[in-house]
Design a protein that fits this description.
By secondary structure, the protein is mainly α. Helices cover 83% and strands 0% of the residues. Residues 44-78 form a coiled coil.
Length: 107
């Protein structure tokens, strides 16, 4: 029984050892593909850098818009408060603003 298993094992082993036909493969444009791969990696890095820059600029723009909004709200509040002033005080404030504006032109 052992001899039959040994013969089968040796037969299988010898069948695996038979010479196999092999084909030679050459890569004609491997360097081009490698360069394209490197360019793609570089482009992805540039795209990532551009995305980060864009995100930062968008955040700065959003902050600037919020600042403008706050300035508009402050100005609106100032106008409302000025309208509520008595007429004599309002004229005094307007006169002071005009005189300070005129003095600025002289600078």
């Amino acid at each position: 029984m052992r001899s039959i298993i040994t013969v089968i094992f040796i037969g299988a082993f010898l069948s695996v050892l038979t010479p196999a036909s092999a084909m030679t493969v050459t890569c004609v444009n491997c360097s081009e593909k490698f360069m394209q791969f490197l360019e793609r990696v570089t482009n992805i890095e540039q795209l990532e850098t551009m995305y980060r820059t864009y995100a930062e600029e968008m955040m700065q723009t959003q902050q600037q818009i919020m600042m403008v909004k706050q300035n508009i709200e402050q100005y609106t509040n100032m106008v409302k408060n000025t309208i509520r002033l008595p007429f004599a005080i309002k004229n005094s404030v307007i006169r002071d603003l005009k005189s300070s504006h005129l003095s600025r032109k002289d600078w």
